[in-house]
Design brief:
- There is one protein chain.
- By secondary structure, this protein is an alpha/beta fold.
- The protein folds into two domains: 8-191, P-loop containing nucleotide triphosphate hydrolases (Rossmann fold, 3-Layer(aba) Sandwich), CATH 3.40.50.300; 199-309, Hypothetical Protein Yjia, Chain: A,domain 2 (2-Layer Sandwich).
- 26% of the residues lie in helices and 28% in strands.
- It has helices spanning 21-30, 77-86, 104-112, 131-135, 141-149, 164-177, 193-197, 235-244, 301-309; strands spanning 8-15, 37-41, 54-57, 61-64, 69-72, 93-97, 117-127, 153-157, 183-185, 222-229, 249-257, 264-270, 273-278, 289-296.
- The strands form two sheets. The chain has a nine-stranded mixed β-sheet, sandwiched between helices. A five-stranded antiparallel β-sheet has the order 10-14-11-12-13, covered by helices on one side.
- Strand 4 and strand 5 form a beta hairpin.
- The model is unreliable at 203-218 (pLDDT under 50).
Length: 314
């Protein structure tokens, strides 16, 4: 296994059979926004990828023309991790499409045991059309409940196939099971890559590549916020702020200098999950530090974030 300069971010995509996970994966692969995404699936033969997107196809690796790739996990998850970490060109993000009956937290724990992987969150897709039937089935309810409760972000899919009252009822039921994860309503598995994966470049003023590729109507549902820093930041105070932000703040990333140790740190938040990691300063580091966030446009994101970060700097 090759040594990486920084850990590979990994997201687990969960959801019960038929919820639309594969549709979400296909949309992300077709609109990667310059990201090299490596997808681990049980069987990439089940992914209906357009032939013109396929560059090469080997026994267990499918390489796409846009730099993304799919790898069949088989029964050995650690071997699949090793293949992803050794892949050339190296991926920017690892996406695991869990089976419909899998417990996503168990897969996430595998990643935590691998120092070259960094957990980016668990995203669970919920089928708006069949949710009530699934949760009322004693054989399925516990699996579905586990997938919802362990998620850091919930995607209520197929919302174009149900009425607004059904959507609100489902959202209320999901929030009852998971109070901290944001619930996003989507149709046909469509969601901007920077909302799913997080902001590619966490520097304020930068334009994530994915933003240029998503100009459909769903983008009006989201707002973006940025905050430049000059001095050192109290890391303990920052964690307290991030842990009390409302679920309408979907994702946050940033680079900052810590007041405690004078070192550079990277921070990433999705739902209730907050992760801090030491940042090795690259030779071309500009010295700029700050934070960027994505949230629901209906939530007054700028007001919420400006108020939360007002007294953060030294």
């Amino acid at each position: 296994m090759k040594i990486r300069e920084k850990p590979l971010p990994m997201t687990v995509l969960a959801g019960f059979l038929g919820a639309g996970k594969t549709t979400v994966v296909n949309h992300l692969l077709r609109h990667a926004g310059g990201r090299r995404i490596m997808v681990l699936v049980n069987d990439f033969g089940e992914l209906p990828i357009d032939e013109e997107l396929i560059a090469t196809k080997e026994e267990n690796i499918l390489t796409l023309a846009n730099g993304c790739a799919c790898c069949s996990m088989g029964g050995d998850l650690y071997a699949a991790f090793s293949a992803a970490l050794d892949f050339i060109p190296p991926p920017d993000h690892l996406l695991i499409e869990a089976s419909g009956v899998a417990e996503p937290k168990r897969i996430a724990n595998f990643a935590r045991a691998e120092p070259d992987l960094a957990m980016n969150g668990i995203v669970t897709v919920v089928d708006a059309l069949n949710y009530e039937n699934a949760r009322s089935d004693a054989r399925l309810s516990e699996i579905l409940k586990n997938q919802i409760q362990t998620a850091h972000m919930l995607l209520l899919n197929k919302c174009d196939l149900v009425g607004s009252q059904d959507i609100e009822r489902h959202k209320k039921a999901l929030r009852k099971l998971n109070k901290s994860a944001p619930v996003l309503t989507i149709s046909n598995g469509i969601l901007a890559a920077d909302i799913f994966f997080g902001i590619e470049n966490p520097m304020p003023g930068s334009n994530p590549a994915a933003e240029n590729e998503h100009h459909h109507s769903h983008e009006s549902n989201f707002s973006r916020w940025s905050f430049k820093t000059e001095g050192a930041i109290d890391k303990t105070g920052l964690r307290e702020i991030l842990e009390t932000l409302p679920s309408s703040v979907l994702r946050l990333k940033g680079i900052f200098k810590s007041l405690e140790d004078g070192q550079l740190w990277a921070v990433h938040k999705v739902g209730s999950y907050v992760d801090f990691s030491h940042l090795t300063t690259p030779d071309n580091f500009s010295g700029k530090t700050g934070f960027v966030a994505i949230g629901l446009s209906s939530s007054n994101l700028t007001e919420i974030m400006d108020k939360a970060f007002a007294s953060l700097e030294e």
